[in-house]
Design brief:
Radius of gyration: 20 Å
Strand content: under 5%
Shape: elongated
CATH topology: Ferritin
Distance between the termini: 88 Å
Number of strands: 0
Mean pLDDT: 90
CATH architecture: Up-down Bundle
Structural class: mainly alpha
Low-confidence stretches: none
Length: 184
């Protein structure tokens, strides 16, 4: 017998990694967005002037769920590639870009730092490109799974830039508080 593991064993090993990576990525991503009150319903965000290319709110939740799923599957493919040259660097790059990804929502939606969030997206995109290249050297499918993420954060960078341009006062914007007094 010249094989170390059967194809079935290799698939099961990948499935085990995916069962860890996908829920972890989803949970962390969703938690970051929820804790920072991201999206519509955030009074500060609702008060901003929106770019013309702004998609509907429901699309962000759907897109990020799919992207986190794909990112988790890509990471699982790399985690499953034990002994692959460059695996450690690829995993470190993924962790770095994902940590920056998780920092973006609190920075933009909670801290109201639109300009700084734009620089964070540039850093995230740069690291995500390097991550995708590193993934591609190990598992081509992992790089392809990262491609929609690269496209989306490029679009997010354009949106962030437009928010910054349309709302130069965003960092100091304080939306009016809801009125609870009843006038008789």
């Amino acid at each position: 017998m010249s094989e170390l593991a059967s194809p079935g064993q290799l698939r099961w090993s990948y499935a085990r990694w995916a069962l860890i990576a996908v829920p972890a990525i989803l949970l962390l991503g969703i938690t970051s967005g929820r804790l920072s009150n991201s999206g519509y319903g955030n009074p500060w965000f609702d008060a901003l002037i929106k770019p013309a290319i702004m998609p509907p709110g429901w699309l962000f939740g759907l897109a990020w769920t799919i992207l986190y799923l794909l990112m988790g599957l890509a990471l699982a493919a790399i985690l499953n590639a034990r002994g692959a040259r460059g695996r450690g660097i690829a995993i470190c790059l993924f962790v770095a870009q994902f940590a920056i990804n998780l920092a973006w929502s609190p920075l933009f939606f909670a801290a109201h730092q639109v300009t700084l969030a734009l620089w964070v997206i540039f850093a995230m995109l740069t690291l995500a490109i390097f991550t995708t290249i590193a993934f591609g050297r190990i598992r081509t499918v992992a790089a392809w799974l990262m491609l929609p993420y690269l496209i989306w954060i490029s679009f997010a960078g354009i949106l962030n830039y437009q928010f910054d341009t349309l709302n130069p006062q965003a960092e100091t914007l304080v939306p009016s508080a809801p009125k609870t007094q009843i006038d008789l």
